[in-house]
Amino acid sequence: MKAARYYDNHDIRIEDIPEPTPANGEVLIKVAWCGICGTDLHEYLDGPIFCPTHNTPHPISGETAPVTLGHEFSGVIEALGEGITDLEVGDHVVVEPYIINEDVNVGPDSNDYHLSDNMNFIGLAGRGGGLSEKVAVKRRWVHKISKNIPLDQAAVIEPLTVGYHAVDRAGELPEGSIALVGGAGPIGLLTGAVLRAKGITVVISELSELRRKKALEAGSADYAFSPAETNVVEEVRKLSKDGRGADVAFECTSVQVVLDTLIDAVRPTGKIVIVSIWGKPATIDMHKIVMKEIDLRGTIAYVNNHPDTIKLVESGKLDLAPFITGKIQLEDLIDKGFDTLINHNETAVKILVTTDPQNLN
User: Where does the chain cross the membrane (predicted)?
Assistant: First the structure.
């Protein structure tokens, strides 16, 4: 079967590799669509980061480069390994793409398996990936979805769950609360969409006019301001009931000035959730944090959030179609996928990849 194989930075090859077979307790999935993630781009430009090297195997998967890429994917069950009785061939599914040690509690009561030692992801550290025709995945990480959800939209559920977990990390937010999202990249947009589906008024701060437009069109924001043209802090205060600022803010850029704006824009006792991955240290005005009693919280990926995210999508409160801005074949992964997202990222949110040309008809 065809697969996108990561060898090293700037070295991804479309190759023929053997088809997987499902082992005991595994599900064989025929992949329908796989999204290109910002993490994939970082691996291509600067990696290996999550991906193993040629000489150093990942401590859990045991695999070295090359590995198959792709962790944002949807598909249809083609076969079941022994011991699986609660799924059927033909079911539509998405994957929570974790690679986690066997001795870690990954049950429904766990809230920290995503923080366990050597945690990594299917499609980055081995065990196949969604940028291929088929993948075998342990039952624990496979989530059934309604056949009413188109499989292309289902491929966006994984990054949407990142946003869902970020909102969950913010704690209780009464309907009518005001949230400020810093940055309208894919995760900022999806976080805003989750917030609005929960009845929260969303303000997005974003320099790019195209991204601000997308935020409003896609239903990710009620208001979208350019910090180069507008005093975002003042606008947020005008929108808040008592003029004191946003109830919560989400940092989705890893840009210092954005973090500074969020600290100024939240009300006293407000919350700031750091969603982006920072490649360098940030500076924080601790006096403002103290004097406003701001809660500053981190968030990474998701933990037991997929079921609730899927229910939200199935409820119809959130439309994922506007976030899909391109569909390509696997053979065009670099030229039409990575190149667009690296060099023309204002024009794209989520580009989906398929190995089946019929999906593009």
Answer: none
Rounded CA-CA distance 16/209 in Å is: 41
Residue 163, token pair as written in the block: 């946003």
Classified as helix, coil or strand, 246 is: strand
Q: Which two tokens mark 97?
A: 């793409």
Q: Which regions of the chain carry the CATH code 3.90.180.10?
A: 2-156+320-360
**CATH number given to 2-156+320-360:** 3.90.180.10
| Region 161-166 average pLDDT | 98
Full-model pTM: 0.96
Distance CA 14, CA 11 (A): 10
On the question of pLDDT at 347 being above 90, the answer is no
Domain with CATH 3.40.50.720 in the chain: 162-298
Please check whether the domain covering 162-298 is classified as CATH 3.40.50.360.
no
* pLDDT over threshold 90, residue 175: no
